[in-house]
Design goal:
Strand content: under 5%
Largest sheet: none
Helix content: over 70%
Number of strands: 0
CATH class: Mainly Alpha
Distance between the termini: 42 Å
Order of helices and strands: HHHHHHHHHHHHH
CATH superfamily: UbiA prenyltransferase
Length: about 280
């Protein structure tokens, strides 16, 4: 069942929750906070992905790339994923309540985005940024888990995660252009073409680099952070070198490997930058 919700993709957003916690605390935020933020992240993402698989099951069945997923193949039932979604939502709410009142108050709103973003491609090509904004809740949540309030760095981190996720989702969506058009689904590649989508992805990742630089400046991070920042920029450039409007054959490398490294490098660089 964990394979059905691609549990391993938690690596994209979870490090940013940790980054926000470390920056908000100015160091180690304590096991209590780390534990409950991790639980909230796992619960929220489990809920989101289970709902996504349910909502998209008919679409997935008509797409050769996704037709082998568990629901279209019948290896899992809808009621099983509904139960998983409910369990994930409950875990998120409980974890938020164990952190502070603001986290608990905002948890239901976060769940609206986590469960609702899967519907957006049915009516708007801005779905990539809605997904990014939804994943960006991880950074905002990590910050308020420590501070119990919003501060400027939380919004910058949220923006960085929004445009980073949107950027690589734009790339990922390029492989489904014809299927999306046939099914009346909305995306930038389906609406404007692959070349425009890749150009928009590059712009988003330039904004990611700028936002991460602003994070380093606002937090007063040391030289090691900037070494990591240069590495992240280099990986973003490399990611875009792997794909073009004429050749998407290395898209999976760009999506999974490179972006997983980026999230972990940012986390390591923030921790290192606090002390050197």
């Amino acid at each position: 069942m964990l394979d059905a919700i691609k549990f391993e993709h938690t690596v994209f957003a979870l490090p940013f929750a940790y980054i926000a916690m470390v920056l908000a605390a100015g160091g180690w935020p304590g096991w209590w906070t780390v534990g409950w933020v991790t639980a909230a992240m796992v619960g929220g993402r489990t809920c989101a992905m289970a709902v996504n698989r349910i909502v998209d099951r008919l679409i997935d069945a008509r797409n050769p790339r996704t037709a082998q997923r568990h629901l279209p193949m019948g290896t899992l039932r809808v009621w099983e994923l509904r139960g998983l979604a409910l369990a994930g939502a409950a875990l998120m709410v409980v974890a938020a309540g164990m952190l502070n009142p603001l986290c608990l108050a905002l948890a239901p709103l976060a769940l609206v985005f986590l469960m609702g973003y899967s519907y957006t491609k049915r009516f708007t090509w801005t779905t990539h940024w809605i997904l990014g904004f939804t994943d960006g809740i991880a950074a905002a949540g990590g910050w308020i888990a420590v501070r119990g309030q919003f501060d400027a760095p939380a919004f910058v981190l949220w923006f960085a995660l929004t445009v980073w996720i949107a950027g690589f989702d734009l790339i990922y969506a390029c492989q489904d252009v014809e299927v999306d058009r046939a099914q009346g689904l909305q995306s930038v590649p389906a609406r404007f073409g692959v070349a425009a989508a890749l150009a928009t992805a590059r712009a988003n990742h330039a904004l990611t680099a700028a936002a991460l630089a602003l994070v380093g400046w606002l937090a007063g991070l040391g030289a090691l952070y900037w070494v990591g920042w240069v590495a992240v920029v280099a990986l973003l450039v490399y990611e875009h070198s792997l794909v073009s409007a004429r050749d998407l054959s290395r898209l999976d490398v760009a999506f999974f490997n490179v972006n997983g490294y980026i999230a972990l490098i940012v986390l390591a660089s923030v921790v290192a930058g606090l002390y050197a």
